[in-house]
Design brief:
Blueprint (H helix, E strand, L loop, with lengths): L5 E3 L11 E6 L3 H7 L3 H4 L7 H26 L3 E6 L12 E8 L1 H8 L8 E5 L10 E4 L3 H9 L6 E3 L2 E5 L2 E2 L7 E6 L6 E7 L2 E7 L1 E5 L7 H4 L13 E5 L13 E3 L4 E6 L4 E5 L4 E4 L5 E6 L4 E4 L6 H4 L5
Parallel strand pairs: 2-3, 2-4, 4-5, 5-6, 5-20
Antiparallel strand pairs: 1-3, 7-20, 8-9, 8-19, 10-13, 10-17, 11-12, 11-16, 13-14, 14-15, 16-19, 17-18
């Protein structure tokens, strides 16, 4: 399959008005290893090793999932245009494509979401559940037909997921953030220094970084840093300071919390600062004096997710 496209199916309806869908497909590690010049990565292709067996199993599981998704769509009279996901690459959604389906994991879903700027809904299918968590994926291969049927019948509705709008030095960053933005020193061992303005308060911090998270992203990096967890459909975003440097006997202001008024401003006090947007693939330099303004994006993402999917995290403990 190439990034140009492939077509599957020949129907004419999706819930009486939809005709086609776009399927964004993960590029499996096996394909990346085959195309790489890195000899250490090439070792994954050596037969009879544990790494190779896992690689082959994941590839097979992924291929079977994609074939099943395309087959089920065709059985329901739906045409599918498939494109391979390349991290950070933008793609166009055609006017007659009324849904975006991702076949992969959370990385595939996140990358695809950056290209969805209208009200076209998204559905995530976890293509290899044994190796992929798939937080944004409503289903995997085994439940895809049931999930699709509930969507087509109107029994399942898409949820509205808040996204973040980033303005860096008065210029809007053209990426609607679905998970989080991490503000940190370019070197993980370096100290992150910045001035934070939120809710009428201002504080200068030293820390390992500042996480600014949507409700959807609150069970990811935010949770790993012991930050607050929100319901996936909540309508406010939050911030959390990762590993703050606290002077003994002095309180640490603005450690974290909800951004109730919908605006947060950060000014870099680092020479080598960096912004990491929805993971590691999308980065923006954040040098000394650079100013980042974070607000709620005007285009929330409509996605078929379980509205209660964050409940299990709220009672979970690291102990």
């Amino acid at each position: 399959m190439s990034n140009t496209q492939t077509e599957a199916g020949s129907g004419d309806t999706i819930a009486a008005s939809r005709k086609r869908v776009l399927v964004v497909v993960k590029q499996p590690l096996k394909a990346l290893a085959e195309a790489s010049d890195d000899q250490r990565l090439k070792k994954l292709l050596v037969p009879n090793s544990a790494d190779h067996e896992r690689l082959v199993r994941t590839q097979l599981e992924h291929d079977q999932s994609l074939q099943h998704v395309v087959s089920v769509l065709s059985d329901h009279g739906i045409d599918a245009r498939c494109v391979i996901r390349h991290p950070g690459e933008h793609f166009e959604i055609r006017d007659d494509e009324k849904m975006v389906i991702t076949v992969g994991g959370d990385g595939t879903f996140l990358d695809a979401s950056h290209s969805v700027l209208n009200d076209v809904p998204m559905l995530g299918v976890n293509s290899a559940p044994h190796s992929s968590f798939g937080h944004f994926c409503l289903t995997d291969r085994s439940g895809f037909e049931t999930a699709l049927s509930s969507i087509l019948s109107g029994r399942r509705k898409p949820s509205s997921l808040l996204r973040l709008k980033l303005t860096l030095d008065e210029e809007v960053v053209d990426i609607p953030v679905l998970n989080e933005v991490l503000l940190a020193h370019i070197i993980p061992a370096g100290t992150s220094r910045y001035k934070l303005e939120v809710g009428g308060e201002t504080a200068s911090h030293k820390s390992s970084g500042l996480i600014i998270s949507t409700p959807s992203g609150s069970t990811g990096f935010m949770r790993s840093a012991a930050g607050p967890i929100a319901d996936i459909t909540d309508e406010t975003f939050a911030f959390w300071v990762d590993k703050p440097f606290k002077t003994p006997g002095v309180s640490f202001p603005l450690r974290g919390g909800e951004v109730v008024d919908g605006k947060l401003v950060v000014t870099s006090e680092m020479i080598d600062g960096m912004l990491y947007i929805d993971g590691a693939h999308i980065q923006r330099p954040f040098p000394h004096g650079a100013k980042l303004t974070v607000t709620v994006h005007e285009s929330p993402l409509r996605a078929y997710v379980d509205p209660a999917c964050h409940d299990r995290y709220k009672s979970d403990s690291w102990a």
